[in-house]
Amino acid sequence: MPGSICDVLPAAAALLGAPGAVDTLGLADCVGDRVDRVAIVLVDGMGWHLLPELARSAPLLASVLAGGTGRLGELACTFPSTTPTSLVSLGTGAQPGEHGILGFTLNVPGTDRVLNHIRWRDDPPHTVWQPLPTWFERLAQTGISARAVLPASFLGSGLTEAAYRGARFRPTQPADDYARQVTDELNAGPGLVYGYTAGLDTAAHAFGIGSPQWHEAAAHVDALLARLVESLPANSAMLVTADHGGLNVPPEARVDIDTDPRLAAGVRVVAGEPRVRYLHTEPGAAADVRAAWAEVLDGWARVYSREQAVATGMFGPVNPANLARIGDVVAVCTGDAAVLATGHEPPESARLIGFHGAATPAEMAIPLIVFNSFG
Fold it and tell me: Is residue 190 a part of any domain in this protein?
């Protein structure tokens, strides 16, 4: 199943008979043509390369890895390997350069403002900042039900609208039985049902991949997936995927823009995230900033001009309207390094253990697991 996160919703839509949708992932080969409802569950942070470690605490995933149940394939997320970018790539089927959600935080062109996509509400307007149609909208326009079971706190946010607009939302509370909520939507009738769970990624950030807390979160995810598989109604399939993987960054592999004058010189706005930095420079300073960063981060990051970064194709085709959202200088960490910005970002960012965002296989490779109600 070669492909990317951009292919998941079109393939699911094709299973449901949506006009113009193409199943490039070959899903019909393993679920047949009797499917009239599809669940897509995105497990935040469940990278492909983490599956063997996850399996220690996850019996269902262990069975999948052993070939005992489901069908397992490898996909790639889009770059940067960060949740806002991936969710919008999933929802639209488009590359980041096209939809414009090019990182966890971005400079709003023409200002010194940094937009945090997780905290984004309605400024800028979501249809302006991300104007591409979603597959939820496309399905609804063809008369196919498209539903999303999401935490109530997500509703009305800019990111939710940018990634999922067109879906009929079922809000949930922390105390709700999430598996039951998703199953109820599947039982309600044909169509697409989307679900999302963040606990694994939260544990990775706060406690580190492989920590006891991360394994506890893995067990919770596995139990959720197992209940959903067991409850699949007739003529249904469930696709389980992720938005990115991750890795732990040790203290000695961290540098801080705001404590190193060589890195701070000439920088006007800092955006991106610790594994991918977008630097918007003072007038005329871009070349000097790029040279200084390349020297200081030699062996820790690849440092590009905006033009060089775009030319690599890492963002996919870039709409000219989105170019200015990319920094004048782009630094992409390699290995297990991270570039902190303690003077620009909340202090908890520097205390994280698990990170993602860059282009290593550990961050970019994601699974696609296909289950169906036919065994």
Answer: yes
